[in-house]
# Entry
Amino acid sequence: MALSIVHRATGLALYFGTLLLAWWLIAAATGPTAYANVQAFTGSAIGKLIVFGYTWALMHHLCSGIRHFVWDLGYGFKANEREALTWGALVAGIALTVLVWIIAYAVGGGR
Amino acid sequence: MSGPSSMRTPLERVRGLGSAHTGTSDFWRQRLTAVAMTLLIVPVIVVVIMLIGRNHAGAAQILGSIPIAIILLLFIVASTWHMKIGMQVVIEDYIHNEKLKIASVMANNFFCVAVALASIYAILKLSSGV
# Structure
């Protein structure tokens, strides 16, 4: 398993994805029309796909990063431990993404 | 210390500082900001979920509240700093033309500072309610 490149790729995606976050905050500070534009985008099919992708990139990068913390602390270097950490990060990243979207729909879906 | 009159040899002055001449400061800050974001991620996601489906007035009111503004400010500082270091590592790994590398590192700094300041300004504006 070579997931280090996925850690890097998700990092790059998040780098540019931050523009969306900045746009959203600036729009909120600008006014109702600007904010409605952001909501129209994030509510569209392509917008939802991008935000979903952003969520997964964030959750994967987080879990994969925690794996790096474990290595930084000097643990988990045996072959089977590396495999377990890597698969764990991959599965946890997907699971957390789905969980966040379920909670988001449960809480915000009715508004 | 390291001036012309220093007793330290050139080798001693650069020892441990590596090719970037800044030692392990970027390595340390990358981990520092990573730990900060790991601690902040749950509150940040809670804030984002609180905002889903709200109109501008509702969103502006939530974003302008003091604890939420502070959580977001901390996250913005940690994430843009982390982004800057991470992208620089990628640039240094893949871009070997010296001039292009310097231009890319500069562009990376400009981008991260611009994203950080724009986001911070937006939050401060929402907090001041003007």
Chain B touches chain A at residues 31, 34-35, 37-38, 41, 45, 48-57, 59-60, 63, 72, 79-80, 83, 86-87, 90, 115, 118-119, 121-123, 125-126 (CB under 8 Å).
